[in-house]
Amino acid sequence: MGMKDQFQEKSEQWQQQAKQKAQQAREQAQQRGKQGQERGKQGQERGKQGQERGRQGEPMRDRDEETERLRREEEDRFSQDYDA
Known about the structure:
Blueprint: H1 3-83
């Protein structure tokens, strides 16, 4: 085998390796893209859930305000009983 053949064989090996690495890089990029899309969807779902929880929490605030108002009224009545 001559030197020309050796260089040509080595060149072909490098070309094949380069093609394999390029293919692997494409596959990894596709996987990262899919993972990013999945994370985006999960984030959107979490955002929707958070909004729903916020809506559910609004009546809770109303109940807290109502409870606080009733407590204050009762304290006022209690104070009036002892002031008289």
